[in-house]
Write a sequence for this structure.
């Protein structure tokens, strides 16, 4: 499969959360659920280099990503993508990705409803992202994780059914 395959595009368009598998610096598996956006042939998400995933990416840049396609009718398969991840610190990329994430997750009718319903938690979120490790400038720590996509495959949602 390729990125321009309609089935791949449909999964990317219908998915809101990715499950990204990576390795810790010592080679232990890590699985994170993350918000994401796509731009051209790349996946972008944000996470600090200080997280276990972030520390592992510098040693083991290979990642696997599962897309569920959770918006709409539940598909019988998942999309598994393999790629190489790296932190991007350029201000233009950081700004573009954060704006795209805001548009996708907050500036939609469901996103605004959710934001208003959880408005009381905003001070906690602001404090969390004000902690050391989230700065783009200053300490120069990474914020935007870019995954260059290398391979795509559909995998059965229920492996027992696939062999039956």
């Amino acid at each position: 499969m390729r990125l321009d395959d309609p089935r791949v595009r449909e999964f990317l368009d219908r998915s809101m959360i990715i499950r990204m598998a990576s390795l810790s610096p010592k080679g232990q598996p890590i699985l994170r659920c993350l918000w994401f956006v796509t731009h051209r042939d790349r996946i972008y998400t944000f996470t600090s280099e200080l997280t276990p995933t972030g520390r592992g990416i510098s040693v083991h840049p290979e990642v696997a990503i599962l897309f569920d396609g959770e918006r709409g009718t539940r598909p019988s398969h998942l999309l598994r993508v393999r790629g190489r991840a790296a932190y991007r610190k350029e201000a233009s990329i950081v700004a573009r990705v954060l704006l795209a994430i805001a548009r996708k997750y907050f500036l939609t009718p469901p996103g605004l409803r959710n934001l208003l319903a959880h408005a009381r938690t905003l001070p906690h979120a602001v404090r969390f992202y004000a902690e050391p490790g989230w700065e783009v400038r200053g300490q120069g720590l990474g914020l935007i994780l870019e995954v260059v996509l290398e391979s795509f495959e559909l995998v059965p949602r229920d492996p027992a059914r696939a062999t039956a």
Observations:
- Residues 91-105 form the longest helix (15 residues).
- The domain at 6-159 is CATH 2.30.110.10 (Pnp Oxidase; Chain A).
